[in-house]
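Bug #77: duplicate submission created two jobs. Keeping one. Sequence:
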Amino acid sequence: MFTLTMINFVAKPTGGTRDRFFRQCFVDMNGLTEQLGPLWQPLMTSAIEGAASPNQKAALRSLVPQFGRRAIPEEELARISVPTTLIWGRHDRQTPLAVATQASTRFGWPLHVIEHAADDPAIEQPEAFVRALRAALGNS
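Kept job's structure:
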């Protein structure tokens, strides 16, 4: 469902396709609308304008084949040598929390779960996201 709504939005960026897609991206779109107040409408307008631009359309289309692909092989993940922390929205529909939990357990990466957020916790729960980011950077 997530991929289909994204494809529809990329193919025909309208208010309707955008809203159907964003309802898959955010836990509480109505609450987010209230939270962002006057910033909401420019963000929504920008989303349509961006999706309609030839460069962004090409970039988004290049992402579509990535969805549904096989997982990154464990041996590639095991080669990551830099400190890695996962910050995840509990209600992410694109890549479920179980994926992050498994990676955290398997590779010892700290996992910060952001409540009341889907695939973009920085937008939905910015304060919680910043706290998680600061903790990951050692700046609690």
